[in-house]
Amino acid sequence: MIETVAQQATRRKITRLCHLTPLRNLLHIATEGALRSTAELDSDERAAFDQQDLLRLDQHPDHICCSVQYPNIWYLRRKRQEATPLQRLFPGWVCLLIDPSYLWVDGSLFCHRNAAAGSGAYLASGSEAFASIFADPVDGAGGPVYRDQKPDSCPTDDQSEVLVPKRIPLEHACEIVVADEAQARATYVGLELIGAPVRQLRWVVAPELFNPSLSRTLRAGHLPVEVPWDAEVMNAP
User: Fold this and answer.
1) Which of 25, 89, 184, 197 is the most exposed place for a label (fewest CB within 10 A)?
2) What are the sequence ranges of the domains in the chain?
């Protein structure tokens, strides 16, 4: 009998899901107190949010797109390349780290490749679907994708996705990864100025999580450097 999703995640030492979002959207997420699906945001006239996937080719706008353990760097590269002139004025991105228990909530879906492939045809729920994202090989956009030396916690295809239903409260996505210390300081100050609950957030500086070299690092069996950042310590005289 196949292990449950929770058992597989524990065995693989999966500690988090990841969600990439522009820095400007973090302001909205922090003040609203939750990460919300496209469908929920569209129904809220108050939501001043810069939607990143207007087409939602995966056919699940009521779900939030996430990845397992590390962000989908190829998605980020594409969004940077396609950025509008307005978006280029505010180029910063952050990565929210989400409690791994969202892997086994009712309604979570798994895809061994980009979820938009086949208009969402490869998405499925349950323990077998979750296990399939770690197969060797998997069928990727350009043909077979092999695990190489990837850590057990990482899906085989860098673009593998998890779709989490509806919303994720901020207390379950309260760790924020930024590219450098300057971005950490600026983001902290900006959130504090608008009254966001910055003291409830934890911060990590990890430049490689925003760089395509992340893929090579993981495929070589290595882990990127991640350094905790504490606003009070950094601002101490």
Assistant:
1) 89
2) 5-232
